């Protein structure tokens, strides 16, 4: 009798495991094959809205302290995992040849024969990719998050210095007219108000050498955001909130604030889309288990921050579709002697 019961339980367990594996495989296949369109966006928003109040999420005021907290809580888990998967740099991959945004920064460094370069929002020290390739250039990286600087310093280079600082406050002590290139890769999107951009540009004009260039490689609100569909607008606002951004600036916002000469304005949305569509498919697979998301997001502040990152990954491709609500690109501004 015991043997029969044991055999039955073993068979039942195997059957359950097979059913679970088959179900998960079916869901994964469905996520892989589902097109990115209005119908799937409506479905995704329905899932998110069933767990969270979207209006509450997208209507919050986000302070610098909250930005620092979110990235401090996720840098050793979310971003460390992403870095292990994507390698050094860990920013959006562009196109199918694993090009990175640093290629565009390198072009500007070479074009200006720069010897002093400042990175705004250096994160975990990703500009070491550039520093390794350009040993004769001195790089300085600043970041709001203390933990980012700790990690970055632990693997620094002789031509690479990291300093904790908030670029929306006075940082003129870094050195007047010192830098030929000031750049930010997926960090200047946090200059999410007119006041922050104004203070940042004042810093740029103080720190940058005559003829120097500000290089912004980032996501932007599209100039067509106001005419995008309500759902794509909602997707963009979820993307912003998930990454702790109140309102991502558009290229027009930057051009108006920069008070310099625009020398390059590249649209890389099409190149960035494959990366974010892949992220959307992975995030969508997780989102079809709303019970998991509901439970995990309420375990702690750190896990809630992880879920917010997930919501951004799940919605950014929707916002960037047809460049309706979001776009990705490079903006370069030159500052003349009389700026």
Spell out the blueprint of helices and strands:
Blueprint: H1 2-33, H2 38-51, H3 54-58, H4 64-74, H5 78-86, H6 102-112, E1 116-120, H7 128-133, E2 138-143, H8 146-153, E3 160-164, E4 179-185, H9 194-207, E5 208-221, H10 230-242, H11 251-258, E6 261-267, H12 269-287, H13 290-297, H14 301-320, E7 326-334
Parallel strand pairs: 1-2, 1-4, 2-3, 4-5
Antiparallel strand pairs: 5-7, 6-7
Helix pairs in contact: 1-12, 2-10, 2-14, 4-14, 9-11, 10-14, 12-14
Structural summary, described in words:
Helix content is 53%, strand content 16%. The chain is α/β, with parallel strands linked by helices and 339 residues long. It folds into 2 domains: 1-33; 37-334, 3-Layer(aba) Sandwich (Rossmann fold), CATH 3.40.50. It has a 7-stranded mixed beta sheet with strand order 3-2-1-4-5-7-6, sandwiched between helices. Helix 1 (2-33) runs antiparallel to helix 12 (269-287), helix 2 packs antiparallel against helix 14 (301-320) and helix 12 (269-287) packs across helix 14 (301-320). The mean pLDDT is 87.
Summarize the amount of helix as a percent range: 40-55%
Shape: globular
User: What is the CATH third-level topology name of the largest domain?
Assistant: Rossmann fold
The CATH superfamily name of the largest domain is Vaccinia Virus protein VP39
Determine and state the CATH class of the largest domain.
Answer: Alpha Beta
Query: How would you classify the helix and strand content by structural class?
Result: alpha/beta
CATH-defined architecture of the largest domain:
3-Layer(aba) Sandwich
User: How many distinct helices?
Assistant: 14
Largest sheet: 7 strands, mixed
The H/E string reads: HHHHHHEHEHEEHEHHEHHHE
Got a strand count? 7
Strand order of the largest sheet: 3-2-1-4-5-7-6
């Amino acid at each position: 009798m015991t043997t029969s019961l044991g055999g039955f339980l073993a068979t039942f367990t195997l059957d359950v495991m097979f059913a679970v594996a088959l179900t998960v495989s079916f869901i994964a296949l469905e996520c892989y094959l589902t097109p990115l369109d209005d119908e799937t966006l409506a479905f995704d928003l329905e899932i998110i809205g069933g767990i969270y109040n979207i209006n509450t999420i997208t209507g919050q005021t986000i302070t610098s302290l909250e930005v620092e907290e979110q990235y401090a809580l996720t840098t050793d888990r979310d971003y460390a995992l992403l870095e292990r998967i994507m390698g050094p740099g860990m920013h959006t991959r562009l196109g199918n040849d694993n090009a990175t945004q640093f290629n565009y920064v390198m072009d500007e460094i070479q074009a200006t024969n720069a010897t002093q370069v400042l990175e705004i929002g250096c994160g975990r020290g990703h500009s070491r990719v550039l520093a390794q390739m350009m040993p004769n250039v001195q790089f300085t990286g600043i970041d709001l998050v203390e933990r980012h600087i700790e990690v970055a310093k632990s693997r620094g280079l002789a031509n690479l210095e990291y300093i904790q600082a908030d670029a929306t406050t006075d940082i003129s002590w870094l050195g007047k007219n010192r830098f030929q290139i000031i750049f930010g890769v997926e960090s200047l999107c946090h200059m999410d108000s007119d006041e922050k951009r104004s203070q940042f540009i004042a810093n740029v004009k103080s720190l940058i050498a005559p003829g120097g260039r500000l290089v912004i490689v980032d996501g932007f609100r599209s100039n067509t955001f106001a005419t995008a569909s309500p759902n794509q607008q909602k997707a963009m606002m979820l993307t912003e909130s998930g990454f702790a951004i109140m309102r991502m600036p558009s290229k027009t916002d930057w051009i108006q604030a920069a008070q310099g000469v625009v020398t390059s304005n590249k649209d890389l949305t099409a190149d960035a889309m494959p990366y974010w569509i892949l992220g959307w498919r992975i995030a969508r697979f997780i989102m079809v288990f709303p019970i998991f998301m509901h439970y995990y997001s309420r375990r702690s502040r750190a896990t809630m921050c992880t879920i917010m990152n997930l919501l951004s990954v799940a919605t950014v491709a929707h916002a960037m579709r047809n460049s309706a609500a979001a776009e990705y690109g490079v903006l370069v501004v030159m500052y003349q002697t009389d700026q």
